[in-house]
């Protein structure tokens, strides 16, 4: 292949970036061109994404990328899963997309599970039960009358891609987070759609990563200062799908933790695990690039720390993350541990107060200072990784000898060391930008700059990107005791 430059738009729940990637058979070089925050907006009690603000930042990022690289070969977009915008019959957006942490879905999952049967839902979709899965959001939207004028549902990357190109589609890895995709056929589960009374025409045609995704519309071409209609390529548009594609694994004996706002902990398989034990453990079978299955579980993730930091900042303290982490490293381990998966931690708000409630209820000392709260969060996350990693191996039968930590959490040395200790496996930390790399690589392959399957793409990441290795320090008895305290 001939080296090419492509642009990755990667939107996370707490921030976005536009990255330029130069890719060739032995080259993979990523530059952050534009970074921006992603701050939800509450309007009349509903938490929305500021989708127009995000779109504006995407355009600004593409403009800056094209100024540096007029030869840009392709653009690809990924974002967090589950959330969507609704278009009317003329293609106009009906309202600002609602945030998955909004309370509109309270109680809906239990009702839908009772109606359709949790076992049946899992057998068809293979998806873990999370209250914000698209299916529950759509049922909530229907009850609020929001589907009355709706013609099409577009997941966030598909919506932005529609605005750039005018083309409608549903990228399959992200469609797998809706809980409306048939995991065996990788097609829409129209039977579920019908039984829930959702409009059948709402779901657009599915697209696979690597397919052409149209070209920039003339008006967009002018807005971003391009001299031609730049192609858009469909990528693993679920951020986790791109992250897993960007893991620098050397063979398939690995477990990944894609560690950002969420921690997605699991293994890559070539077929789903749909057993009862898997459903009870709430493991998911999301679709990955190249027809793979991402067999994983959501762990609450750095959200606990990000949201705590936001609270401390709002209260006037000016906490510095590096200083808080350094202080947390000095705090007594396991003074207090909580179950990160407790749904009380899901909505925005005072996380330290909720941790304090749990500690009081479970007869543990209440962490007071930011350092103590942070240590409690990191110990608790590592414990959740320990449990989830063990379950992933048991339920899938996959043997692993290393854990790849990718995403922002790879920068958190304390968390990476605790993860190695808790799981009793070496941790390879990095790249931080695995999601953008996975996005870039799928595009680069589509435009012919590189060839091969996921193994070849990953080998390119492993050969070019720095990783840091953490060895387990072997305090197995202490971790086992801490885990028992959680389940007691
Ligand atoms: C991570 C993620 C995760 C989803 C959540 C909504 O960014 O995409 O995989 O469950 O956001």
Strand order of the largest sheet: 17-18-16-15-19-20-21
Multimer state: single chain
List the total number of helices.
18
Task: Tell me the structural class.
Answer: alpha+beta
Mean pLDDT: 97
Proportion of beta-strand residues:
15-25%
Gyration radius from CA atoms, angstroms: 22 Å
Largest sheet: 7 strands, mixed
The small-molecule ligands in this entry are: 6-deoxy-beta-L-fructofuranose
> What's the β-strand tally?
21
Shape: globular
| Helicity level | 25-40%
| Ends apart, CA distance between termini | 57 Å
Low-confidence parts: none
Domain Carbohydrate kinase FGGY C-terminal: 255-446
Pfam family, one: FGGY_N
Domain Carbohydrate kinase FGGY N-terminal: 41-246
Family: Belongs to the FGGY kinase family.
Notable characteristics:
single chain, 488 residues, alpha+beta, seven-stranded mixed sheet, four-stranded mixed sheet, 18 helices, 39% helix, binds 6-deoxy-beta-L-fructofuranose, EC 2.7.1.-, rhamnose metabolism, FGGY_N, transferase, kinase
Question: What's the short version?
Answer:
With 488 residues, the protein is of the alpha+beta class. It has 18 helices and 21 strands. The termini are far apart.
Question: What can you see in these coordinates?
Answer:
This protein has 488 residues and is of the alpha+beta class. Helices cover 39% and strands 20% of the residues. The protein has 18 helices and 21 strands. Strand 4 (41-43) and strand 5 (46-48) form a beta hairpin. The protein is globular. The mean pLDDT is 97.
